[in-house]
Design goal:
With 322 residues, the protein is an alpha/beta fold. It is built from 12 helices and 12 strands. It folds into 2 domains: 158 residues, Rossmann fold; 156 residues, 3-Layer(aba) Sandwich (Rossmann fold).
C-alpha cells in the first residue's frame, strides 16, 4: 500500500512521524507532506494559503499526489491545524485517492464544511463520533483510536525504578488529583515547574519526546495517565499505547473507550479516584511481578491490534481496499 500522510511535523505528539515509521516497518510505501515543518515555514503561510494565488500549498500537494500515486491520503487534524482551502482543491481532483481525516481534538459545528470534504472522518474518541452525528455532518464517521509505532520495540528493561512516570502538560484536573497522591510520581514536562502543593513529587521540567520518551518508559515501573479534561470525552491518548512497546504497564483513569482496546485488570490498570490510584501504586511497588505481567499482556495486545499500521490498514478496508 502507498500512503500519503499530511499534517504538522516536528511536534511532541509525533502524529505524522510515528505512523510513517510504523507503516514503513510493515513494508508499506509512505510519503510525508508536512503542513509546517519549521518556524520559517510559518512566515510563508499567508502566501502558501492565498486563494488569490491559487493556494500554492494545494498545488504542491497535487503534484505530490500525481508523482507518488498514493492508495490513501490521511490528514491529521484538519479541523484545527490544516486549512480547508487545501482540501477543497484536493477533493475536486479527478481520480484522486480516498481522503481520510483523523481527528483527536474536540470540535464545533462550524467544522461541517471541512468534514464534508473527506470520504471518511475517523475520530480517536467515541464521544466525538457521537458529536459528528449530532451536528449532522454529511461525511461518514468511524471510531479509530490512537496507536503505537513498533519503532522502539525492544526487550523490557531489567532494572526499573518504583515510580510511575507521568509525561504530560499540567491542567487543573491533573494538579488536583496529584495533590491527593501519597507516593511520589515522576513528573515530566515544562508545565510542572510551577506546581504549588506538589513539592513532594519528583519532577523533570523539560520537554520530553522521541527516543528519550521511549527510554523513560523502559525504566519506570509503570506509566500514569490522567485525562486532559478539555480534550477528551471517552477517548484514549498515546500514553495508553506507546508504553506497551516497552512492556510497561499503564495506570489510567476510567475512560469510556478503555474496554474497547484493553482488558482492565490484565492488560491495563484503571482507577476512578485518588484512593484507587494510591492503592494501585502500592500494589505495583510491592508486587513488581504483577506489573511485569500486565506490561507483557498489554504489549501483546498492542502489537496484535493497536499499531499505526493496524489503523491505516483499517482505513484502507473502509474504502474498499485490500
Amino acid at each position: 500500500m502507498r500512503v500519503l500522510l499530511f499534517g504538522k511535523t516536528n511536534n511532541v505528539a509525533r502524529l505524522v512521524e510515528d505512523p510513517a515509521e510504523d507503516l514503513r516497518l510493515a513494508g508499506h510505501e509512505v510519503s510525508v507532506f508536512p503542513y509546517r515543518a519549521s518556524k520559517l515555514t510559518k512566515t510563508l503561510d499567508p502566501w502558501l494559503l492565498s486563494p488569490r494565488l491559487g493556494v500554492p500549498l494545494a498545488t504542491l500537494m497535487e503534484r505530490r499526489i500525481r508523482s507518488f500515486k498514493p492508495d490513501l491520503l490521511v490528514a491529521f487534524g484538519p479541523y484545527h491545524w490544516l486549512p480547508p482551502a487545501i482540501f477543497t482543491r484536493l477533493a475536486a481532483l479527478p481520480n484522486r485517492p480516498p481522503m481520510f481525516a483523523w481527528i483527536g481534538d474536540l470540535f464545533k459545528s462550524e467544522m461541517a464544511a471541512t468534514a464534508s470534504l473527506f470520504d471518511v472522518v475517523a475520530y480517536t474518541d467515541t464521544g466525538m463520533v457521537e458529536q459528528h452525528t449530532r451536528f449532522g455532518f454529511a461525511s461518514p464517521a468511524v471510531f479509530l483510536p490512537l496507536a503505537a509505532t513498533r519503532g522502539g520495540l525492544s526487550a523490557p528493561a531489567e532494572a526499573r525504578n518504583d515510580h510511575l512516570a507521568f509525561v504530560a502538560s499540567a491542567t487543573a484536573h491533573r494538579r488536583a488529583l496529584l495533590a491527593e497522591i501519597t507516593d511520589p510520581i515522576a513528573l515530566f514536562g515544562p508545565d510542572w515547574r510551577d506546581a504549588p502543593g506538589l513539592s513532594h513529587h519528583i519532577r523533570d521540567p523539560r520537554r520530553i519526546g522521541g527516543k528519550e520518551l521511549a527510554a523513560l518508559y523502559r525504566t519506570h515501573r509503570g506509566v500514569l495517565n490522567i485525562r486532559h479534561e478539555h480534550n477528551v470525552i471517552n477517548g484514549l491518548n498515546q500514553r495508553h499505547f506507546a508504553p506497551y512497546i516497552a512492556a510497561t504497564p499503564v495506570v489510567a483513569d476510567a475512560q469510556g473507550d478503555i474496554e474497547s482496546c484493553f482488558d482492565p485488570g490484565t492488560e491495563i490498570l484503571v482507577y476512578r479516584d485518588a484512593a484507587e490510584l494510591n492503592a494501585l501504586q502500592a500494589e505495583l511497588r510491592t508486587h513488581p511481578a504483577r506489573a511485569t505481567a500486565i506490561g507483557l499482556a498489554g504489549q501483546r495486545r498492542v502489537l496484535a491490534h493497536h499499531t499505526y499500521t493496524h489503523r491505516i490498514e483499517a482505513m484502507r478496508r473502509l474504502v474498499g481496499g485490500g
